[in-house]
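User: Can you predict the 3D structure for this chain?
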Amino acid sequence: MKRAPIFRLVLLALLLTALWWFGGASNPSGRGSSAGAAGQADPGDAPGAAAASAAGPALATRSGDKPRDPAAKDAGDWSNRGEAIDGEQPEVTRSQVRANVPVGHSMVTGGHQLPDGTREFAMITPRWMEMPNGGKMVEMEVELLHFDAAGVAGAGLETLVTGDRKSEQNAEVWTPEEVARTMEAVKGEAMQAKPRVVTSPGSPGRIQMGAGRAVRFELELSASEAADGGFDLTSDLKRAD
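Assistant: Here is the predicted structure, written as structure tokens:
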């Protein structure tokens, strides 16, 4: 009977040892394992959570991409097919223009001869797009036309024919009536494409065409608001054939 108190003391000592082992020894520093306290991501956190908190909010765009206006639209398959054409190369034909285009009017440029003997023209029509937030975007529709000699005369484009591979300000601004008369004379096969690009005012847009990633035609466009409410339009047409 006298051994009972000793037995209880032994049990108590074993219990205290177990509590110390499973409590303090497993975390000898006495610090908590919280990710916030230690500044480390918990293995159960979402991937990238620690990096986002260190470097600021995660961006919606890919690394290296310029954030885009959500209202801006590319010209579908016409946009950014590959590397830009180097307009300084001697084999590249190029037409650079800057013009004031009133609302409702169009600018026509080009006139270079292609290897098949036809001539290429681009009719560019800018339009304002009113946005719900009160801002404005610019839609630029392009009608790409190829004409033989008879077609050039029928469309009234003789004044834009050029033999230079590099030209500047070789363009005309047409009224809606002049555009309508020319388009009535255009045969279906003359229309090669009708792409469009939408950008914010002053921002560049690019239309490219070719086979796969090989770009053969490129048109860079930019339009800002002119003093008369129309467009200060710049274009850079390049053709590599």
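Residues 4-25 form the longest helix (22 residues). Residues 76-240 form one domain.
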